[in-house]
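Hey, resending since the last one bounced:
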Amino acid sequence: MVITVFGDLVQHRGGQVSTAKLGQVLGRVGVEQGALRTALSRLARDGWVQVERIGRTSHYRLSQQGLARFAPATMQIYAPVKLAPVARWAMVLKLGATGRQEVTVCPLDDVVDQGDCLVSGDLCTVSGAYRASLLEDDHRFALAALAADITALAGVKMSEPLESAAARVLLIHRWRRIVLRFPDIPWELMPKDAPLANPRHAVAEAYWRLSEPGEAWMGCDITASAPNNQASGRFKPD
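The structure tokens again:
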């Protein structure tokens, strides 16, 4: 949760945050002060964060090691929403150690490893059985929980900016755990009965409803340098 706060509320505002500020937003979602201190101590010991004393207040920022581990995940979490139909698809075949073939279908632009054989072209037919095979039970369960959160957020009017900031952290924390654990299924291949037809789009819409008041709560007191509001570019349509 601490790393989620850094990624969503802190990094684009100078990268430094006080223990008090962390305590406010995490306390709003039920994290006790003792648990926060333990988490910060563990993160510092593991090389994720570094601490600086300013007067009587402790301020934290991600260490160089933490930034190196943090940046690739951030790109996945806040990747642009793809709404336009895929122009060209790819079928990538890889041979496993035992010679077993592994086949992946994905947008051609998303291919990183061309494997042992790559075929590109139009996507003509996708059976329901193939769609269902892409969404494993654990992934489906996680998307169902995310869908429930998004539905709940849509029905609640936040009375304070702090509530919006806390809700945004919870939303991104759940989304982060999905993105970093499961494959990103193109919305054209998602099963018809999936909890969310286009999860990234659904998260982006909920995120932007919470974004402005969340940023307002953070304010400009997080660091002495002027904020660089890179949050404005998150989830923008590709």
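The chain has eight helices and six strands.

Sorry for the duplicate.
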